[in-house]
Design goal:
two-stranded antiparallel sheet; single chain; six-stranded antiparallel sheet; mainly beta; about 10% helix; elongated
Length: about 210
């Protein structure tokens, strides 16, 4: 009966170089990517702003998966030897990138103790516009003045998942792997409207004006 040492002694492993010496690793890069929103999650939090105000917001966390249509786009990168390359968008199809949280600041009602923070809803406004929504404008009396205000829609997770967008991807915080190498990470900074994009067929729709 063989011992463990004898077994390991006869355990063979090989490295056989590939005949394809022209193959170049295509790294992730910053840029605009055609994709669809996936894995949307929401939560409501009440917190203090940097100036000490107590506010309340619904926070939308989401990811964008790069679509097949992105294959026709072009991206540039530099390899480890400093050589510049141009690639199609094909290697990035299927890449899933997390987005920065979108805050929808809520208006206080009777009995609420938090304050309005409507002036900081611009990111949510642009997010809705990127999804193709028509934003209603109405006149309201604010601090004794009648002004035009935009009424931001209430969105459910199912309203967002599968929507086509152009994801603006940038570098996020780098991290260090087990070998001590610094590795880049990426985040969707914001999304833009993809005019010709189609919503994924396996998602549900509702009566919102998309």
């Amino acid at each position: 009966m063989s011992t463990m040492t004898e077994t390991l002694r006869h355990e063979e492993a090989l490295f056989i170089p590939s005949d394809d010496t022209t193959r170049t690793h295509v790294p992730k890069v910053e840029g605009d990517y055609l994709g669809h929103i996936t894995e949307t999650r929401t939560l409501v939090r009440e917190f203090k702003t940097n100036d000490g105000r107590n506010v309340k917001a619904r926070i939308f966390n989401y990811k964008v998966e790069v679509a097949q249509e992105n294959a026709t786009r072009e991206y540039k990168f530099t390899d480890r030897e400093g050589t510049d390359h141009t690639t199609t968008g094909e290697p990035y199809v299927g890449w899933t990138v997390s987005g920065r949280g979108i805050f929808r600041f809520l208006e206080p009602g009777d009995g609420d103790t938090f304050e309005s923070n409507s002036e900081n809803n611009v990111a949510y406004l642009r997010f809705c516009q990127a999804l193709g929504l028509t934003i209603e404008t109405t006149r309201r009396e604010i601090n004794g003045k009648t002004i035009d205000v935009q009424v931001l829609p209430t969105l459910e997770e199912s309203d967002i998942n599968g929507r086509p967008v152009i994801a603006v991807v940038g570098r996020d915080k780098d991290w260090v792997n087990d070998d001590g190498d610094t590795m880049p990470s990426f985040k969707v900074k914001f999304v833009k409207h993809w005019k010709d994009g189609k919503r994924l067929a396996n998602t549900t729709t509702n009566d919102l004006p998309f």
